[in-house]
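QA checklist item 7 of 12: single-chain prediction sanity check.
[x] sequence parsed
[x] length recorded as 51
[x] structure emitted
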Amino acid sequence: MQEVSKVGVDLLFCLIIGFLIIQASNSAQQNEELINSLSAESARISANSLK
């Protein structure tokens, strides 16, 4: 149960950071690149948490 909670917190943290970065950015191109890299980072954190 603790593992699931840890993944949830990690994903929530990534989403909050991503949201803040996207809000601070003006360029649509930059936003797309940031969203892609944040999605990859979130997936990596989740994979590491599940090991």
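[x] summary fact logged: The two ends are 14 Å apart (CA to CA).
[ ] second reviewer sign-off
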